[in-house]
């Protein structure tokens, strides 16, 4: 028996996304076989496909950064995970498929009450925002922050979680996406026509506590300009090449040596330790169950329409998240 998965044979555009058949197998020791219900399409999926990352997997590679699904089988030495459980995981690669094989001890149980399309956005995008707010900066009510890229999947997670945390927020976004920022109390800045440094320095002459940057390192200088003494710029966007990776490291070292009291911190999902994934995901699931957060799902595509979903994401017209769903979840939509 087989299942279908997307594969990329070489770096390039949408035409490189190829649907292939793979053989079903028995899960190995410590492994679970999961039937995918939902998987997000994120910017890292696009960046790796086109080759815009310093450390790239060998070709061919299978895209898909996270998933939510139902356990179909488990291997030997698996504890705490059983057939029929609804689970989720952060893969990095391989989840744009009908079936995922993944270490059972790296899965988290997902409440049955949650919408899979919403819940799967918590596995990557909300995890990033949550960990930066709660663990990296330990932001507190009244703190002031700028979100660069405020309308994307991580940006909208910052908006919702930042509002819960009591932050005063500014956000960079194009005018067509300002309504989302308004909804969560953030002050929108049009990065096409406005100089955000000038806008913020006029509004906050003492400076901001934090800048959250998921875009390029070209925002570093201007971000530092709007921080107060002691403020922190958290950079979580991946560099586009090995040369830019080296430039990023050099900038991190150089700027942190400057005697201005300001600091740049780099964040990656695995830098804080995978042991924090489960408690942080569980906390996010509770917020979703309680209605305190409501992920923006801009589009829901059938699982095997990854090309169309990638095309939409790459158009720059998306506010929030794009998700691929198993056919049974799209009945009636």
Write the layout of secondary structure elements.
Layout: E1 2-8, E2 17-23, E3 31-41, H1 43-50, E4 66-74, E5 86-90, E6 99-103, E7 108-109, H2 116-119, H3 125-136, E8 144-148, H4 153-164, E9 168-172, H5 178-183, E10 187-189, H6 196-203, E11 208-213, H7 220-226, E12 227-235, H8 242-257, E13 263-266, H9 277-289, E14 297-302, H10 306-314, E15 321-325
Parallel strand pairs: 8-9, 8-11, 9-10, 11-12, 12-13, 14-15
Antiparallel strand pairs: 1-2, 3-4, 3-6, 3-15, 4-5, 5-7
Helix pairs in contact: 3-4, 3-9, 6-7
Describe this structure in words.
This protein has 333 residues and is of the alpha/beta class. The protein folds into two domains: 2-123 and 272-329, Medium-chain alcohol dehydrogenases, catalytic domain (Quinone Oxidoreductase, Chain A, domain 1, Alpha-Beta Complex), CATH 3.90.180.10; 125-266, NAD(P)-binding Rossmann-like Domain (Rossmann fold). The protein has ten helices and 15 strands. It has helices spanning 43-50, 116-119, 125-136, 153-164, 178-183, 196-203, 220-226, 242-257, 277-289, 306-314; strands at residues 2-8, 17-23, 31-41, 66-74, 86-90, 99-103, 108-109, 144-148, 168-172, 187-189, 208-213, 227-235, 263-266, 297-302, 321-325. Strands 3, 4, 5, 6, 7, 14 and 15 form a seven-stranded mixed sheet that branches. A six-stranded parallel sheet has the order 10-9-8-11-12-13, sandwiched between helices. It has a two-stranded antiparallel sheet with strand order 1-2. Strand 14 (297-302), helix 10 and strand 15 (321-325) form a beta-alpha-beta unit.
């Amino acid at each position: 028996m087989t299942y279908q998965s997307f594969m990329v044979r070489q770096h390039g555009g949408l035409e490189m996304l190829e649907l292939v058949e793979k053989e079903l197998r028995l899960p190995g020791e410590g492994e679970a076989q999961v039937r995918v219900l939902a998987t997000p399409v994120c910017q890292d999926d696009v960046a790796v496909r086109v080759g815009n990352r310093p450390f790239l997997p060998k070709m061919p590679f299978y895209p898909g950064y996270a998933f939510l699904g139902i356990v179909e089988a488990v291997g030997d030495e698996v504890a705490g995970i059983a057939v029929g459980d609804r689970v989720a995981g952060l893969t990095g690669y391989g989840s744009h498929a009908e079936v995922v094989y993944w270490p059972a001890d790296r899965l988290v149980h997902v409440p049955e009450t949650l919408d899979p399309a919403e819940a799967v956005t918590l596995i990557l995008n909300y995890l990033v925002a949550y960990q930066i707010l709660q663990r990296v900066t330990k932001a507190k009510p009244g703190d002031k922050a700028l979100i660069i890229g405020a309308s994307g999947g991580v940006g909208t997670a910052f908006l919702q979680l930042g509002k819960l945390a009591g932050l005063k927020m500014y956000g960079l976004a194009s005018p067509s996406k300002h309504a989302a920022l308004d909804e969560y109390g953030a002050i929108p800045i049009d990065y096409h026509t406005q100089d955000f440094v000038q806008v913020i320095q006029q509004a906050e002459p003492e400076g901001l506590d934090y800048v959250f940057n998921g875009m390029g390192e070209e925002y570093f200088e201007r971000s530092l300009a709007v921080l107060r003494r002691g403020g922190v710029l958290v950079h979580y966007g991946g560099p586009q090449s090995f040369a830019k990776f080296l430039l990023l490291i050099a900038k991190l070292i150089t700027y942190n040596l400057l005697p201005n009291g300001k600091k740049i911190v780099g964040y990656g999902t695995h830098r804080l330790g995978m042991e924090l994934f489960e408690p942080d995901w569980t906390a996010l699931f509770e917020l979703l169950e309680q209605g305190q957060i409501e992920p923006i799902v801009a589009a829901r595509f059938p699982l095997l329409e990854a090309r169309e979903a990638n095309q939409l994401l790459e158009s720059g017209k998306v506010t929030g998240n794009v998700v691929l769903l198993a056919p049974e979840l799209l009945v009636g939509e």
